[in-house]
## 1
Amino acid sequence: MAVLASGVGTNLQALIDQVHGRDGVRIVAVASDNPEAQALERAAAAEIPTAVFGRQDFRGDRRARDRAMAGWLREQGAQLVVMAGYMQLVCEEFLDRFPDAVINIHPSLLPAFAGLDAVGQALAYGVKLFGVTVHYADPGADSGPVIMQRAVSLPDAREPADVVPHLQALEHQMLPEVVRLFARGAVRIASTHPRRVLVGPLAVLPER
């Protein structure tokens, strides 16, 4: 597995603590678009190879950056790519290098509140139920097929600080769980429906 991260890297740390070196899972690389990302320090502390692919290093050419990043991840042996707080879209060429094996985590119950500041969007809308989605990445913004969702009722939430800790707790449970499922071959997209994801025992049963 490879992890992409742009910031603090708490989801990366959850993966290091819960699945790295266990259950047939090994984190072989961490890449970032941000040379100051704390996630890089977390990876280095765990002796995981790191690299930075800043868009500015490729004269603003996102496709060139994504091609270089995909090539490096392949060289490290990555089979699954986890976008864990990676604040960039990846292009189709990147996704094609890891078919049905790039996943993202987002702090909302998609398709609601896609994109940036999902918690702020949800608070502004006045929702009472917040949540987290793990989904396949596609070229759009948080628009790929849903793998797993979990929710938490927070009817009195008024500020991001009332919500974020609850969502982070969900994220730190869900992302390692989904990675373990991938390691067991228990996640796949249904051949009969491009947005239906079969998870767990259902993934090896007939789709009817």
Note: The helical segments are 10-18, 38-45, 62-76, 92-97, 118-125, 164-183.
## 2
Amino acid sequence: TNPDILLRTHTSSVQIRYMEENQPPMRILSPGRVFRNEAISSRSHCIFHQIEGLYIDENVSFADLKQTIQFFTTELFGKSKIRLRPSYFPFTEPSAEVDVYWGLNSETDYRITKGTGWLEIMGCGMVDPAVLKNVNIDADKYSGYAFGMGIERIVMLLYQMSDIRMFFENDKRMLEQFKSL
């Protein structure tokens, strides 16, 4: 192991490179494989896929971000009730965690929502003006939002999978059992 090498922990680097080479308006999605080594347990290092979105234009507001997330959750889950809880992410201000009201219709619902009915699905926020300035985008003229989520987590919810390790066992039978939603 080389201590001087850091594997990508999120796909935000793709957004930064795009902003350095382009001018607004911009809308991008950046999917990719990411790596985490968290100190929760001896097996807490993990590899998963993430997708991040970025939208920058004139007069982009937090209301635009909320409307986009509302549309996404309704289309993907058929769930229309969301909440945004204040949070912290280094490149957005304000930042929020997005929860969808999953419900309490089954024992599984109770388990995955810890009895609240609410389930966290992603993080989001308004792009910090300092980020825009650092990539030579006029922060007085432009604003934007960003969001990100783990792809496996969303698939696990949609298909009611209980173990994320199933994605990495290289068993074709696991993939063949899923049909398009």
Note: The chain has a mean pLDDT of 87.
